[in-house]
Design goal:
Elements: E1 8-10, H1 14-23, H2 29-40, H3 47-54, H4 59-77, E2 85-90, H5 116-128, E3 133-138, H6 146-158, E4 160-161, E5 164-165, E6 168-172, H7 178-186, E7 192-193, H8 201-207, E8 223-225
Parallel strand pairs: 2-3, 3-6, 6-7
Antiparallel strand pairs: 1-8, 4-5
The protein binds iron/sulfur cluster.
Iron/sulfur cluster (SF4) binds near residues 97, 102, 103 and 217.
Amino acid sequence: MKISTEGLKSFIPNAEIERLLKEQENAPASRIRDIIAKSLDKQRLNPDETAALINVKDPELRQMIMDGARELKERIYGNRIVLFAPLYVGNECINDCVYCGFRISNTECSRSTLSHDDLVNETKALVETGHKRLIMVYGEHPKYDARFIADTVQTVYETKYKKGEIRRVNINAAPMDIEGYRIVKAVGIGTYQIFQETYHQPAMKSCIPEDPRAVSSGDWMGWTAL
Ligand code: SF4
């Protein structure tokens, strides 16, 4: 599915980010401690404070950052963990992300897409093992358009087994246009998840060198209308 970037411009201030990272090298330990305390106070960090944390090399200070992160997470979420099972619907993909086994250049990968019956059987098996939440995963391919995704989600929601059912289906698929999001929303999906591996554009291009579209999957998220 091709999403045009015509009329869009990048909103990621690369030069500013590089400048901040350089400027915040070797921040004193007292500043790092203050930033951790600010974070634990649930105040949003400024970009220069984040840059200072990223630059920390001292093992003790790094440990303080990790301990602070764990404490903040526990203060906000406690010990709650939400589990969901992945259901891979299809691994056809037109992209060539170097880190992914589904990439188009991987000729050793066997490609398949679950049929309606496969989906029903997979759902029953997942329900039987106690799952109530899924994330359905699709490669980036014209055959996995919004209508296809909506139909597969509906199949899962309609499958009941031994008094059990899947109550929430999240989606992991390619970016869509607005009409596409309307179609999948209409079947009651939970979260629509699109991975953005990095906002660092040179790194993004090195990971996804041969993308068939003007910009890579997710890379378009760094762009906004003029
Ligand atoms: S778009 Fe997704 S499925 Fe396709 S190659 Fe990249 S990471 Fe893999």
